[in-house]
Amino acid sequence: MARSNRKPEVDYAAAAKRWAESNSSGRKPTMQDVAHLAGVSKKTISRIINDSPSVNEVTRRGIQQLIREIGYRPDPQARGLASKRSFLVGLITDNPTPQYVVNIQHGILDVLRQTGYELVVHPCDRKSDSFLEDAKRFIEVQKLYGVILTPSVSEDERLAEELRELGCAYIRIASIALDMESRMIVTNDREGGKAAARHLAKLGHTRIACVTGRRSFRSSTERIAGFEEGLAEHGLSVLPEYMLGGDYTFESGLALGADLLDLDPPPTAVFAANDEMAAGILQALHVAGRTPPDSLSVVGFDDFETATRVWPRLTTARTPARKIGRLAAERLFEFYDGDREIVAENETIPELVERDSTRRPSH
Amino acid sequence: MARSNRKPEVDYAAAAKRWAESNSSGRKPTMQDVAHLAGVSKKTISRIINDSPSVNEVTRRGIQQLIREIGYRPDPQARGLASKRSFLVGLITDNPTPQYVVNIQHGILDVLRQTGYELVVHPCDRKSDSFLEDAKRFIEVQKLYGVILTPSVSEDERLAEELRELGCAYIRIASIALDMESRMIVTNDREGGKAAARHLAKLGHTRIACVTGRRSFRSSTERIAGFEEGLAEHGLSVLPEYMLGGDYTFESGLALGADLLDLDPPPTAVFAANDEMAAGILQALHVAGRTPPDSLSVVGFDDFETATRVWPRLTTARTPARKIGRLAAERLFEFYDGDREIVAENETIPELVERDSTRRPSH
DNA sequence: CTGAAAGCGCTTACAG
DNA sequence: CTGAAAGCGCTTACAG
Known about the structure:
2 copies of one chain form a homodimer. The first copy, chain A, is of the alpha/beta class. In chain A, 45% of the residues lie in helices and 14% in strands.
C-alpha cells in the first residue's frame, strides 16, 4: 500500500468511519469535528471551504472527501458573524410586472443553486420617503454579500452611492450603462425599439403612433428612442400628436388605445413600450368593435406571458429576463472574486418575435 | 425634577448623548454598548429585544428609547448562531404561475416588513429525485425560522414530515385541510367551483364541459368537484365525454379548446380549472374564427392578470393570493409564539367575478 | 503550507 | 427582576 505522495499518516476514510460510528446521536459535524478527525487545525478546514490556495494538495483532497462523507456543512451564520458578511444575495425590485420579477429570480437562482448562497427578495417603493433608509438598513443588518437591482431602482444614483459607501457589491440591470462595466448588465432596449420600427416600416406602415412609459423610466425612453431611430432609417417619424404618454400599465394602454381611435388621420400601426400597454390597446380595439390587426397593427415589448395570451398574439421585442437574472448573478460573483477575469456576457439584445398583431396596412 | 418612579439613577437620554459624542467613527452599537450605556448586563438588553416579560417596566421603556436613539440593531447572525435559529422565512414553491408566486411573496412581505425577518425564496421541482434532500438541506443549513409551502409542494406529506422532524415551523397553503389547523391556510377552491357552476346554470347552460388540471393537483380536483356539486344543485352534470384533462398550462387549454369544438353536440359553456387554460380555450376559439362568448361561454379560476388581459375578459373565481400570503405569514408567527390565541383567519373563499366571457346560451 | 489565540455579537443555562 | 460565565461555529490577524 505504498503511497506515491508523502503525508500517508492520515487515513481519511477511516476517520469518516470513526465519525459515523461514534456519532450515533446524529449530531451535525462542525468545523471542529472535521479538524479533529483530520488531525489538523480548524484554520486548515477553514482554508479548504474557502478555497484558499495555500493548502497542501493531498491534504485538501483527503479532507474534501472526508467532508463529503460525513456531510459537513459550514454554518453560514457562524461564517457571517466572524467575517461580517452573510451568504445572502438581495434582490431589490420595484418592477410591477410579476412575470419579469419571477423570471429574474429564477435566473439568479440558476446561478446560486448549490453555492450555499440564498436569495432574499426585497420589493420596494422607490417613491416612498423611507425607501433609501429601508434599503440601507436591509443591506447593513443582513450584511448582504451583494445586491442585484432591477429597473427602475437600478437607475437610482443615491442607492448605488449608498451601496458603494457600505462596501456592498452590487449589479445594476438597466437599459444603458449607468456604472462601471463590472457592475452593469445592459439590456440594450434601444435595439429592441429599432427592430420594432424596422418591422413596421418593412410592412409598409407610415402613419405610426407610439405609446410610451413614464419619462423617468430609462427603459421607456430607450425603447422609444430606438424606435424613432429605426423609423428614421426608413425616412419615417412619429408625429408629435401620435406620441401618447402611458405608464407601463395595462390600464394606461386601454385608455390610450381608445384615444388612438380618435386620431385623424388614424395611424395604421402603434408601438407600445411594453406588452402590458400593447395588450391594453388590443383590448381597447376589441371594446370598440375592431378586429386587430385589421385597422391597426400593434407591437409590444418584453414578450412575457401576456404577449401570447392576448388575441391577436403580440409581435414584440423580447426581454430575456431569466437570462438577464443569470448574467447578473454570474457577474456579482465575479465582481467579488476580484482577480478572476470577467468573461461572462454583460449585455443582452432584445430579439423581435413576429406574431399576429402586425400586418401590412390595409389600403 | 422629581421622578414619580424609583430607578432615577440612570439618565438614558444623557447616555444616548454620550454615545453620539464618543462615537465619531460611526461604529454601529452592539448589545455590549447598549448594556454599558444603560448600566445593565447584556442579558437585560437581550431580554428587551426578545420581548421577555421579566424586565422592570421603567428600565424597559428607558432602554427601548435609548436603543432607538443610538440606532442599535441586533445582529441577526449572532442571534442565529447563539439560538440556533435564523431570522429567515423560507417560501418553497413549485407553482408555475408567476402572478401567483409574486402575489404570495408580497402578502408574506406585508407581514414580515419591520419585523426583522427576511424572505428567502426557494422554487423547486417536486418531481426531482433530490427534491426532498435539497429542501431538507436548505431548511437545516439556514436554520429557518419557518417555512411557507404553496400548492403543490404543500400537498407533499413527506416534506411536512421532514419539517416536523427538523422541528421547523411551517404553514401549508392548500385547497383543503391537510394538517392541524395551526399549520394550514385553506383556500376552499371547492366553493369557487360551485360559484362557477351556479353562474353558468343560472345563465341557462345545460351542455357544459370541463377542462381539469392534473389529478395529482388537489386544487384541480377540488375545483372540479365543487363545480359538479354546483351543477347538481340545478339538476345538471358534466357528461364524461365533456370532461377534458389538461395540466394548468395555457398550451393545454389551447389544445383542448380545439378539441372542444369537435364535440357533438357542442357544449355551450366550459369551466376551466384555472385562468391559463381558460385563456388557451379563448385563443383556440379565436384561431377557429369564433368570437367568444357567442357560441361558447368560458369560466376560469384565479383572476390573476391574465383574466383581464384576454378578450373577452374572463368570468372567473378569484384566488386572493396576496391575502393568502399574508394569512400564511401571520399564522406562521402565531404558531411560534405558542400561547397567543389564534385569531387570524385561516380560510379564504374564492369569489366569482363576472365579466365578458360568459352569457346566455344562444338559442 | 500550517496553527494557536482571540473575537465576531449574541443566547443559554444557571444562579440568585 | 437581574447578571456572570460559557459557548454557538466560524474567521481574522498574526506568527512561523
